[in-house]
Amino acid sequence: MAGPRGAYRKTAERREQILDAAFEVFSKNGYSASSVNEIARTVGITQTGVLHHFSGGKTELLRAVLERRDQAAEGLLDHRTGRDFLAALVDISRTQREQRGVVQLYTILAAEATDPGHPARPYFTERFARIADAVTAAYEQVRAEGGLRDGVDPRRAAVSTLSSVEGLQLLWLNGLDVDIADDSARVISGFLVDPL
Amino acid sequence: MAGPRGAYRKTAERREQILDAAFEVFSKNGYSASSVNEIARTVGITQTGVLHHFSGGKTELLRAVLERRDQAAEGLLDHRTGRDFLAALVDISRTQREQRGVVQLYTILAAEATDPGHPARPYFTERFARIADAVTAAYEQVRAEGGLRDGVDPRRAAVSTLSSVEGLQLLWLNGLDVDIADDSARVISGFLVDPL
């Protein structure tokens, strides 16, 4: 009874299972200390079984895990501009308060990617540059509408916003009394005539 | 000729060599993927030779490397208060622009320490709490002298300052066009009546 359609669905389910396991193993060990073998054991299949679905091995698994995370966030930012875009950044931080494991994986990988030879390096370099540009554009639009405080440079405000968001995650995960959403909102509001 | 004094000096030199090697190996691999054996090979001695000087093994080596880093920074902050303290934070960032390897090791370890079971976890939790308190005290003193902008809460300003510094390091190491000293100074100045 399982025609091509059933086989396809089964493949998609197995891929999701493998990505769930990869996420769990990377979160626990960091990327460097993780192995395809451990990911396979977590799913309950062989290493060859994992490589059948992800022939690029550990590097491809990492990229797929990160892309799955970004898709959810990008849905929240789509078609937003100016203040709306900045408010959506805070909404993403609010969602992430409930996703400690994801934020932790992301934090460890972003730190490991500071090594220029790390396979996630291009992903993070491109990602930070892209987000910095998008946040700069949002502040520029706020300025065009007269909503930016005097003397605030959109690019520097974007760098401050992005660095605060990254730093707040690190402090939160290390036990400091911060609220990654409220404290991000406060930083952004510091650049605006009317707070968020 | 090598009396107790000479023997002591030799021990101190060997400890420094081992810490230099530990720093190099931790920087390259991160803590989790590093081994006492590799550190020993880098010095050109046996693993037993390393454990003779650091009987606590990898955990003790990590703590010693981090403490050595902090001593330099704390020298710059000693006896400073208020605006002077905040300006010294920027000076520390300026120094760190020339110490990419140290900042990278620190960034990776701080991220790994988000795992509550990591041996560096108590160090980072205590360190972030201590710095946040010291920066809060500095902003409180600035406020007492009338130098804080209206509506700025010293604690929240301290959290923003610390998160920005941490985040700027991460963005810098991942290739974004930030200046960890100038951008930190800009964040701090945003809370002050007169910029730094």
Based on CA atoms alone, the radius of gyration of chain A comes out at 19 Å
CATH architect. name of the largest domain in chain A = Orthogonal Bundle
> What is the end-to-end distance of chain A?
56 Å
* Total strands of chain A: 0
CATH homologous superfamily classification of the largest domain in chain A: Tetracycline Repressor, domain 2
Protein name (chains A, B): TetR/AcrR family transcriptional regulator
DNA-binding region (chains A, B): 35-54
Keywords (chains A, B): DNA-binding, Transcription, Transcription regulation
Pfam families (chains A, B): TetR_N
Overview of the structural elements:
The structure is a homodimer of 196-residue chains. The first copy, chain A, is mostly helical and 196 residues long. Chain A folds into two domains: 1-65, Homeodomain-like (Arc Repressor Mutant, subunit A); 79-196, Tetracycline Repressor, domain 2. Helix content of chain A is 73%, strand content 0%. The first copy, chain A, contains nine helices and no strands. Chain A has helices at residues 4-29, 36-43, 47-53, 57-77, 82-96, 100-112, 121-144, 154-173, 180-189. The longest helix of chain A has 26 residues, at 4-29. The first copy, chain A, starts with a helix and ends in a 7-residue tail after the last helix. The model of chain A has no long low-confidence stretch (mean pLDDT 90). Chains A and B meet through helix 6, helix 7, helix 8 and helix 9 of A and helix 6, helix 7, helix 8 and helix 9 of B.
